[in-house]
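Justification of computing resources. Each target in the renewal requires a structure prediction run like the one illustrated here; the chain below, 197 residues long, is used simply to show the kind of job we budget for.
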Amino acid sequence: MQYTSEAIEKMVEIFSALPTIGRKTAQRLTFYLLREPADFSRNFADTLIDLKEKVHYCSKCFNYTENDPCPICSSAKRDNKIICVVEEPNDVLAIEKTSEFFGYYHVLHGVLNPLDGVTPEDLKVKELLQRIDHTEEVILALNSSVEGEATTQYLSRLIKPLGIKVSRIASGIPIGSSLEFSDEATLSRAMECRIAI
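Resulting structure tokens:
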């Protein structure tokens, strides 16, 4: 599509490069910005620059933070004997929302994926192994995809010989869903991870 402005075309291209944003959504966002007052656009641009300049990895858990160590790693109220390993920083937010976990985290920034060339060296695996000296349990809270499963098995084989308990979060049928609409892999995992009541 040909726009009457090169700046509009460039903005649409930038927005559509973001995950889950197609060209139509990018176009709507661009036109939304054009309708807003100039102060909104300046604030948007300044916030984006601040985001890139101020936010970095925590040197302990590799979550995003402005302070090093991050507020979770620097909290004395956390249980330092438990580390929950997650794929991405979004996963930390999801678990924190439950108010059920009070240990520390470790963000891998991905999962093993040999087809895409993602190896253990591309993840924060070495850093995880360096920080689990006094840990009693490592909880693997990775997505139940093929790559997540492979990463779970790989980490388990590395950590168990160190005498540290390795567990994984349960997975299976989501609350409110119907068995008839669940796929075989989900039902199989639900049966495997069953608990006594």
